[in-house]
Amino acid sequence: MTYQPPFTISPHIITLIAQISVAVGRLSAFGDSEKALNLRRINRVRTIRGSLAIEGNTLSEAQITAILAGKHIVAPPREIQEVRNAMAAYDGLDKWRPDVEKDLLTAHRVLMAGLIDESGAYRSGGVGVMAGAEVVHMAPPAKRVPELMRDLLRWVKNSDQHPLIVGSVFHYEFEFIHPFADGNGRMGRLWQSLILSKWNLLFADMPVESLIYAHQDEYYQALQEATEQSDSGCFITFMLTMILDAVRKTDQVDAQVSDQVEKLLAVMGDGWFSTQDMMALLGLSHKATFRKNYLRPALATGFVVMKDPDSPRSPRQKYRKVM
Q1: Is the pTM value of this prediction over 0.90?
Q2: pLDDT tens-digit readout, 41-60
Q3: What is the DSSP letter of 283?
Q4: Which domain holds residue 134?
Q5: Residues 115 and 263 in one domain
Q6: Has residue 3 been placed in a domain?
Q7: Ordered DSSP codes for 56-104
């Protein structure tokens, strides 16, 4: 018998799919412009920060940006390793196939390298999902994991559902099976991004994870309700709501990028720049105008970050473009 995950498609879900499709169509029109590429780099940082923060990683977007630029930061080695692994994993989205078990195991090995002994292999023992000190879900026995995962991947390959549905259903079923000793949350989110990126490449860098982090309690509640109801419809609704919010926020950020911000980004190379450096590159002499029309919008939209965000008014403050 062909495996069929239990889920119900509500009218609200259909509406969300239509709204996401329209919003994605608007963003796709920007193509590979320099502005779009900058936005994707920023979204990649936000994606990594959101997914890892859900698992307890404390590094900020500025710190993650520094790591990705090859800079040294003072932070727990494990958290730095998690960032490097996550970047390598998201970089692999273009070559992995969402229905291939070998690719799934390879992705887990990349994502969890140096963090657990069983990276790239299904768990060998039992595991429970915790909420504080309480076990809210006991995953299926380890001996059933290979069979369950193959059934799920086969369904992903053969399903005629919209990728937005397939990605959300996979995400829920994956968390229910909990196939790995650790890293299940970040893998589930990564693989949903992979499924969506095969529908539209924008989702390779769409910061859905940052919104999940902002609604973390609702995320876990939706997972638990889906398990209690033996139907992932409520989780699909939650995920599509997060996806729609992420697409809309990305669209809004792009609309906020003025010609002045684009000019600033164009003259900033690698490294850190003072206010005077940037004004000289732009040929400007009036500091107040520069800060109002160039620097503040660039900071507000995340295209530029401060070297010392704890002292924003420091006369020695420097800035860099998010790469």
Answers
A1: no
A2: 778 888 898 999 999 999 98
A3: T
A4: 11-256
A5: no
A6: no
A7: T----HHHHHHHHTT----S-HHHHHHHHHHHHHHHGGGT--TT-HHHH
